[in-house]
């Protein structure tokens, strides 16, 4: 198991908490807790070793298409594809934006 911490600038403030997905074969769980800071801190536990570059690329891409919210994002990954990862992350951000 690999543990990765990434901190990226945040450009919007949300309120609340959200959960998307479940840890299981080929899937992942994403938990988001909003705060009023200026960064998004991402804590990733993944079964895929040496994947830091893939995660950094994913968050760089997300930051290009949308303004990332401030808060804490916790990801428990069990080998999800980049597409599933993006969907789960966008789901928690969307859920909290409606809170």
Automatic annotation (TrEMBL):
Modified residues annotated as O-(phosphoribosyl dephospho-coenzyme A)serine in this record: 25
UniProt main location, coarse: cytoplasm
The record's account of how the chain is modified after translation: Covalently binds the prosthetic group of malonate decarboxylase.
Compartment list: Cytoplasm
Presence of the UniProt keyword Hydrolase in the record: no
One Pfam family linked to the record: ACP
Superkingdom of origin organism: Bacteria
InterPro entries per UniProt: Mal_deCO2ase/Cit_lyase_ACP, Malonate_deCO2ase_dsu
Keywords: Cytoplasm, Phosphoprotein
Function: Subunit of malonate decarboxylase, it is an acyl carrier protein to which acetyl and malonyl thioester residues are bound via a 2'-(5''-phosphoribosyl)-3'-dephospho-CoA prosthetic group and turn over during the catalytic mechanism.
Family stated for the protein in its record: Belongs to the MdcC family.
Protein name: Malonate decarboxylase acyl carrier protein
Originating organism: Kosakonia pseudosacchari
Lineage, highest ranks first: Bacteria, Pseudomonadati, Pseudomonadota, Gammaproteobacteria, Enterobacterales
């Amino acid at each position: 198991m690999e543990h990765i911490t990434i901190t990226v600038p945040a450009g919007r403030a949300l309120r609340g908490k959200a959960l998307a997905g479940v840890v299981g074969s080929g899937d992942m769980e994403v938990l988001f807790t909003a705060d009023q800071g200026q960064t998004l801190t991402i804590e990733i536990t993944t079964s895929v070793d040496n994947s830091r570059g893939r995660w950094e690329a994913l968050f760089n891409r997300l930051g290009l298409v949308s303004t990332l919210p401030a808060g804490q994002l916790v990801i428990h990954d069990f080998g999800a594809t980049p597409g599933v990862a993006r969907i789960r992350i966008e789901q928690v951000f969307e859920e909290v934006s409606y809170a």
